[in-house]
Inverse folding.
């Protein structure tokens, strides 16, 4: 039987909310077995940009990562968010090691090709360094990833945290039973966005299609669910969406995504 | 015979100078054997503070690390400086892994006790986690430290980079032949600060005392040399001061500190 590894993604907004960050780090630190954490960005990067007078660059409603935005992302995600999270986890006895995709060449990406839009310093994942990741897990460490990769030629790149979580789970799936957990402020995917009690216990592609056709799912949830199905098709064992309570063995309310 | 490990400290100012950073990373990447890098801060933190309108806090001519200064240090040293250096080294085939003292609990410190001066979030090193450091080296990685530690209770702390280099070399000295290299813009300790050709090949405590008494050494060099003698007394095999050319086996001009 393959050993199990848990890949947990937590939104950056969550980590910036006093009270919630303690709830999350407590739940994550208590999880048994091999585990990996990926944290998103949150509002702090936007706040820092505003304080520095850096205007967000938008093209066709999409955010562009220019050189100034990349510098802010590396400082905030790779520096402040990553290190304060690692220090908190260490205080709870969790042997966290903060990394970006550049560290130990863990995630190599290529700059997104310029098509209709030039996204700037945005990286599409090319390869996860499974031997290096296994070496860190084997040393008893808990890798904590920020949403940054590199191109192997000296350039850091900005990469979506949900995508990084999925790619890590897929790569680990080759040798582990990999379980992917998307944690956010709600208890799961809601049938009615205005009713926190309407958590859907299981979503498969048929239900997804019918909810999508009926426009019953929040728009932001669509790419996330698409990611989840892809992960399952590419070897991830199980995929869950919910609040940090999801990380406890006594978990009750959450959404599981299945094929 | 113990295996040799090289502990290299590079000043932050060096890394911010185009041309010099390539010289340094090339020389470091080419060094054979086990190695560890420690980088200092440089002017970028000061520049960011200025842009953010954060006034440097000084007491009796000494810089204080208040909460705002710590945040800047974690963003700049732990984020931008560390990750861009790691990405550069990776591009040269050097398996760099960027860390702070919080990562893998590598360097635990305590907040400097408040005496005549409250230095703020400044950490005095308590313990280097030798098993974790050995595990990273054993995995074929090259740890790249920024000058940040943690207190084990969730707080990041600012720690002098020269001190971190010395403490790492001392800890590694217990099981390795540890060689400590302080790299900066000059070729070594100068007998005459105005003559770059006046590099002193070997400094022992007697010569140090006579140079100090004759006020022939730059003031900034005194604590550095004091650190070097202490390192040798605490088990470090050899200590060198010089330019990055020092890292090459063909090195010719440099200063070696001996007891």
């Amino acid at each position: 039987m393959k050993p199990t590894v848990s890949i947990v993604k937590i939104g950056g907004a969550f980590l910036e909310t006093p009270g919630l960050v303690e709830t999350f780090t407590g739940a994550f630190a208590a999880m048994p077995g091999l585990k990996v954490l990926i944290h998103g960005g949150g509002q702090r990067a936007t706040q820092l940009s505003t304080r520095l007078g850096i205007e967000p660059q938008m093209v066709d409603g999409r955010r562009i990562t220019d050189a100034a935005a990349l510098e802010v992302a590396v400082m905030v995600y790779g520096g402040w968010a990553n290190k304060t999270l690692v220090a908190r986890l260490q205080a709870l006895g969790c042997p966290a090691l903060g990394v970006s995709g550049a560290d130990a060449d863990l995630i190599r990406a290529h700059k997104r090709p310029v098509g209709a839009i030039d996204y700037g310093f945005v990286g599409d994942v090319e390869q996860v360094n499974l031997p290096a990741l296994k070496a860190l897990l084997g040393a008893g460490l808990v890798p904590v990833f920020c949403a940054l990769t590199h191109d192997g030629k000296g350039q850091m790149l900005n990469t979506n945290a949900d995508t990084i979580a999925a790619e890590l789970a897929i790569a680990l799936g080759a040798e582990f039973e990999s379980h992917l957990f998307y944690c956010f402020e709600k208890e799961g995917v809601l049938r009615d966005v205005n009713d926190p009690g309407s958590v859907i216990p299981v979503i498969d592609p048929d239900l997804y299609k019918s909810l999508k056709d009926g426009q019953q799912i929040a728009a932001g949830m669509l790419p996330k669910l698409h990611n989840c199905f892809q992960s399952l098709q590419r070897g991830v064992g199980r995929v869950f969406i919910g609040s940090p309570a999801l990380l406890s063995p006594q978990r009750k309310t959450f959404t599981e995504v299945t094929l």
In short: The interface with chain A takes residues 48, 51-52, 71, 74-80, 82-84, 86-88, 90-91, 95-100, 102-105, 132, 135-136, 139-141, 148, 150, 152-156 of chain B (CB under 8 Å). Residues 4-257 of chain B form a domain with the Carbamate kinase fold (CATH 3.40.1160.10).
